[in-house]
């Protein structure tokens, strides 16, 4: 039975061919690289990776009224540690142009969030201003994951490596990744449960990696739960994109890091 992830990856193959055909148009990005890892080393509070996301397969249209640069500036002004930008167009209504627009107006790291399965997508992310990229363990085998991780690092990009279960976490740790994102959303069903980070978080911390909890964060009590699992940071999109008071919501998320699990 075809899953949502299967559909997305099938669509990506066509997009990759288009990117390869236009690769000669990529220009070296003149923006400076910024390190999320360095920020996490110095953070005493849960770091918020605030996401610009217009839509998603599970929620449909989330917010198409705000501009990426404007929203990113609001995030940074109100305490975000990094900005995530969805660049997938078909399912999330994003673009690499959104990524560049955000990078041009903020002084914090910018994550290119997409379903990356080919080096040309990493080239496009780098050329568009990304400081780090997302790699999803569920989207590829170990050999491909290792290849893309090393390719990104070769371009001086940091990598947030996303997992959803123990098998994927084992794959991620083999790469040597220092940033592990535990997605509380199952990409095959799109069901969400914060119990996922509760189970995997301590294993990430034991391995010596920084833990980012992704999906399912809507209010302070959600942050309190993932904090107990050892989260160094959270990636939040939908609730911030819908919030009438971004300042208040972001402020409620910035709890102290749980040093007991550090």
Quick tags:
262 residues, alpha/beta, TIM Barrel, eight-stranded parallel β-barrel, two-stranded antiparallel ribbon, 11 helices, 10 strands, 17% strand, globular
Summarize this, please?
The chain is α/β, with parallel strands linked by helices and 262 residues long. The protein is 41% helix and 17% strand.
Query: What's the CATH architecture name?
Result: Alpha-Beta Barrel
Give, in order, the helices and strands. Answer: HHEEEHEHEHEHEHEHEHEHH
**Structural class category:** alpha/beta
End-to-end C-alpha gap: 40 Å
CATH superfamily: Aldolase class I
**Biggest beta sheet attributes:** 8 strands, parallel, barrel
Tell me the Rg in angstroms. 17 Å
Please state the average pLDDT score.
92
CATH-defined fold name? TIM Barrel
What is the CATH C-level name?
Alpha Beta
Seen as an oligomer or otherwise, the chain set is: single chain
Spatial order of strands in the largest sheet? 1-4-5-6-7-8-9-10
Task: Describe what you observe in this structure.
It is built from eleven helices and ten strands. It has one domain (4-21, 31-253): Alpha-Beta Barrel (TIM Barrel), CATH 3.20.20. The termini are far apart. Helix content is 41%, strand content 17%. It is α/β, with parallel strands linked by helices. α3 (68-77) packs across α4 (96-103). It has helices at 4-21, 36-42, 68-77, 96-103, 119-127, 142-154, 166-174, 195-206, 220-228, 238-242, 246-253; strands at 47-52, 55-56, 60-61, 82-86, 110-113, 132-136, 158-163, 179-183, 210-214, 233-236. β6, α6 and β7 form a beta-alpha-beta unit. The chain has an eight-stranded parallel barrel with strand order 1-4-5-6-7-8-9-10, surrounded by eight helices. It has a two-stranded antiparallel ribbon with strand order 2-3. The chain is globular, with a radius of gyration of 17 Å.
